[in-house]
Give the backbone structure.
Amino acid sequence: MARAITELSREIKRQIGLLIDRRGRVSAAVVGDARSIFLPDIVRRGRNRLCGLRFIHTHLKQEPLDDDDLTDLALLRFDCVVAIEATSDGLPGTVHRAHLMPANDGDEPWTILKPTKFHDLPEDFMSFIGALEDEFSRQSFSRESGDNMDRAVVIHVSSKPQTAAQDSIEELKELARSAGITVVHEIAQRRKPDPKFVTGKGKLKFAIIKAMQLGAEMIIFDLALSPSQMKSVAEFTDLKVVDRTQVILDIFSLHAVTREGKLQVELAQLRYRQPFLGMKSSAFSRLTGGIGGRGPGETKLEVDRRRASDRIARLEREVNKLGSRRELRRGVRKRKGVPTVAVVGYTNAGKSTLLNHLTNSHVTAENALFATLNPVSRRIRFPQEREVIITDTVGFIRDLPKELKAAFRTTFEELQDADILLHVMDSSCPDLEDKYEAVQKLLRELELDEKPTYHVLNKQDKCDRDTLHGLTERFDGIPLCALHRDTFSDLLNRMEADLWSHDLTPAAWEE
Ligand SMILES: Nc1nc2c(ncn2[C@@H]2O[C@H](COP(=O)(O)OP(=O)(O)OP(=O)(O)O)[C@@H](O)[C@H]2O)c(=O)[nH]1
Ligand SMILES: [Mg+2]
């Protein structure tokens, strides 16, 4: 058969390829051009196992397996890929072979064997493939007994400068961690995102191969993908395709505990998924399944488009109802003349920790992004029977997904009534300025940028003295450590002075 294809290849000046199953039967034949061969979508892409087919094709020049041969090997999970050189008289010449290797952390997932003369090829393919399969199954066994976090390869595509790109990747890794995902590899490409595949196609292939090699089951894009990008990429690979918005939605759904929070998250998820519901695609079920099929309402989400719109409308009504109920409660407080202070700031800045230590309470505070979703109010008592209501709320993040912004509208509205905002910043954070800007931007959108605002420079214990001094000047800031009450006196004095001796309208504040 080798001789038949080398002869024919020479004659028509095109590469010829055969896909052969383990019983030696030809399951497909493909004709390429003089230098390459394109495999149509006839092979199901596998993920862990080998696909059970060898890909054997001719090369018209004397050359080894090229990049395309090797990416096909990795993406289609062939048993092995073989190139037979067709000599000038049409006979089978040197043979090049490569096969996959079980995941290791090295650079390439394949092994290229030494070129052999056609007649020196070993004959017992079955024992070779049996041994390889054994190695693969041993490996997947050891992986299963290891951690059970989801693994992901991250792709960042933007024309941002390198440090900004790196900050963004670091943040995505933190987000992933908060969603229970381990990032095993990251890829950055500096370019304008491609309208179809986001990255270049070559980079995407590379990412997929990397993911398979490192046992990752998903690719996370560090940006919000359009539905059509999502579809193109998902049709290109069997890996789960996730974007930044989905990761954030997933964290919200893991952290939603109150009824209101759960409704808001479900609303955001439905809004996010709505554009996909009209798409017919084999990738569809994976796209709409969420990251791990976790969180509230996963089954409820499997509804068709019309029912989705109905449900969105209903959720909106319920969220609004809960919002107005809280508004009533706030109204009562207001009439009693109790001033309120709202804590805002980037996620993980230490807002909840500050609230806890200011008020001796125990709301959730942890080193995870979006630990807090819904407002929590507590009292601080000052001398002379004075008291303040202090409210902690959901953290901000740059490019907060629009679906969440909409779903959390009533939560943000709570901030409107505050007499003072405490903008908590993590002074030890290297990209503090960017995060400050992101918070400011959101405050402007919420028309809160005119409110009297204190800039709390938290985590002073992790910040060196000169930097802290600079920041204090720059922001007219109040440095403290939210973990230690004895660092709060500046903040408390300022609050007391402002709340009971000033008229807190913005104009008066200026003076
Ligand atoms: N070293 C140090 N760590 C702090 C300080 N304040 C908070 N932390 C830690 O920072 C992490 C985040 O604190 P949280 O209070 O949950 O932050 P948050 O702003 O409420 O975060 P989200 O609700 O997720 O938006 C926790 O691990 C805290 O222990 C501080 O002053 N110094
Ligand atoms: Mg919090």
Summary: Residues 281-290, 292-301, 504-511 have pLDDT under 50 and may be disordered.
